[in-house]
Each structure stands twice: as C-alpha cells, then as structure tokens.
From TrEMBL:
InterPro entries: KFase/CYL, KFase_sf
Enzyme category, top tier: hydrolase
EC number per UniProt: 3.5.-.-
Protein name as annotated: Cyclase family protein
One Gene Ontology term of the molecular function aspect: hydrolase activity
Keyword rRNA-binding part of the UniProt annotation: no
Keywords per UniProt: Hydrolase
Entry annotated with the keyword DNA damage: no
TM stretches of this protein: none
C-alpha cells in the first residue's frame, strides 16, 4: 500500500472488491442481500436467556458533535408539559392532560447507519449509478434508507478487538485494525463472522471518552478499520458492520492527504451498510462473562423517505 497514492489504492480496491451488478441493476440493498430468511431464523435461535442490550448512545445535547458540516447534537423541545396540564391551558375536557415533544437533529449525529447514498466515488453511487441522479435536493431517490428498514435483523457477532488486542480493553487512537486483528479476535471469541452477519467491532474508544471527556471523538483521531480490510469486508460477505467510533475507519487515515478512503470503497462499491457511534460496552461485558459472542440483533433504520443515513437503537438479545 503506497501511503502517497490514495487515488491509486482506492481505484485498485474498487476494481477488486466491487459488487456492482451482483444483485441486478436495480438493487437498493447492497450487502443486506446476504441476510436471508433462513439466516434470520438461525439468528433468532441464538436467543436463550432473553437478556437484551441497547447498543445506542444517547440522543441529547450532551453528545460529541461540534458542528462539523452542520452536524450538531440533538435539540429536544417540549411542545406540551405537565405544567401546561396543571394550569388547565391545554383545552382538553374532563381533566385529561398530556405532554408532547419534538426533536431536531442531523440524522448522523449519534448512533446511526450510513446508507448507500451517503458516499460516492468520482461521482458514482452504489451499483455504478450517477450520483447526481441518485441523491438530489429531494433526497436519495433510489437507495433511500427506507428500503432497508424491514431487513436489518439477524445474527449479530461482536468482535471485541479492544479487549483481545488492546490494553485494558482499549485500542489507542490511530490504531489500524487489520484483517489479522479481526481474525485473531474472532478466534479468541470462538466465532466466525460470515455471510449475512451483522458485525459489531468494539475498539474501546467510547469507553475512554466516557471516562476522559468527548475531546475530538467527533472527527478526531481514533482506532478503526485499516484500509487493507476492504478485501475482508468484501470476501466475508457480511451484511453490515458497525463500530463504537465516529468514523468506522482508522483516523488519521493511512494515506497522506486522504479523507475516509475505506468509505469510498465500502459504500459505493461493496454496497456495505456501515454503522458508527454504536455503544457495545454492556454487551461486551456480558459476552466476556458467558463466552458467547453471537446473538440476535435487530437494528432497523427509521424509514425516513430519501434519507442517506438514519438514527438507530440496535438491540442485541442473548
């Protein structure tokens, strides 16, 4: 890998690991096609104890966002309150009162999915479509994330790379997770991520910023997947992957003068559903305690018409 030539490396990986046309010219699901009904039934059979874990961070003003590219933390506003009810100003009969609220936020400000319309490569979107014909001011007209809403449920696999490879359960910022690290972690956990799986990678960065403060969590240095994992992401035929970091791939990126090169291959060429800012810590503790790193996972995006990303509250059940 020539660190001075991101353009060449991206072009080579895009050619080698492209899924364009694999599921037909009209495909809108990408690697979610690997998650079949049979695999979903097998994933549901992993539920034995019935214990469940939310893998979502909070959606509130105390989040990590700093306004980069207009990404801000959620603003929650009450429309009706208990005070209004107590004062009798709501205008309802026979003493009934209520509360109502609204939230304003970027769709990718906390735990979220990157949709297939989120990233382009040289003006091309997933499946080789022209970006300007896919995503317009009206939204993603072709691969809007609403099309994925029924399908993101199946076998989840936790790869706690922070626990296996890191120190005290954490990887340092700038640590590039390679295919060898993923494989070693899977072997340590006794699992084999494969076709149709939803893989959750824990680096431990979220654990660290909870302890030390957000700092530059939203966009700064972070552990994450190496660009060299593009082949693994393609060859393993996983349906989706998520991490506990802001940007999924290692930051700073491994090339000079580059920005998120793995995204540029994984989303528009592999068609991979990518999750960011997930919170696997409680699940990871339970997996370490019982030695089981596979579970039922449901993580449906909100069916927001034409959206290129979506908030999500992933639920793992063991």
């Amino acid at each position: 890998m020539n660190r001075h030539d991101p353009e060449g490396a991206i072009a080579e990986a895009a050619k080698s690991f492209s899924n364009w046309g694999r599921w037909g010219a009209d495909d809108r699901l990408g690697t979610l096609n690997f998650l079949t009904e049979d695999q979903r039934r097998a994933g549901a059979a992993l539920v034995r104890r019935g214990v469940s874990f939310s893998l979502s961070q909070s959606f509130d003003m105390n989040g990590p966002q700093k306004g980069w590219r207009r990404r801000t933390n959620p603003v929650h506003t009450m429309l009706d309150t208990g005070t209004d009810a107590a004062l009798g100003v709501q205008g309802f009969p026979h003493g009934i009162g209520g509360a109502d609220d609204v939230i304003a936020m970027p769709l990718q400000c906390s735990t979220q999915w990157d949709g297939l319309g989120h990233i382009f490569d040289h003006g091309l979107a997933w499946n080789g479509r022209a970006a300007e014909k896919v995503v317009t001011s009206d939204g993603d007209l072709v691969t809007g994330i609403e099309h994925m809403a029924p399908y993101v449920a199946g076998r989840g696999v936790l790869l706690d790379v922070g626990r296996v490879i890191g120190e005290n359960g954490e990887l340092p910022d700038g640590f590039a997770i390679t295919e060898e690290h993923l494989t070693a972690t899977a072997q340590a956990h006794g699992v084999t991520p494969g076709r149709g799986d939803i893989v959750v990678v824990r680096t431990g960065q979220l654990t660290r910023v909870r302890r030390d403060g957000w700092g530059d969590y939203a966009g700064g240095p972070a552990p994450g997947l190496s660009f060299t994992t593009a082949g693994w992401l393609h060859g393993s035929e996983i349906a989706a992957i998520a991490t506990d970091t802001w940007g999924f791939e290692v930051r700073p990126n491994e090339f000079e003068h580059a920005f998120q090169p793995l995204h540029q291959v994984a989303i528009p060429h592999i068609g991979l559903l990518i999750g960011e800012m997930w919170d696997p810590d409680a699940l990871a503790e339970d997996c370490a305690a019982d030695g089981e790193y596979a579970f039922w996972l449901t993580a449906a995006p909100l069916p927001i018409t034409g959206a290129v990303g979506s908030p999500v509250n992933p639920i793992a059940v063991k």
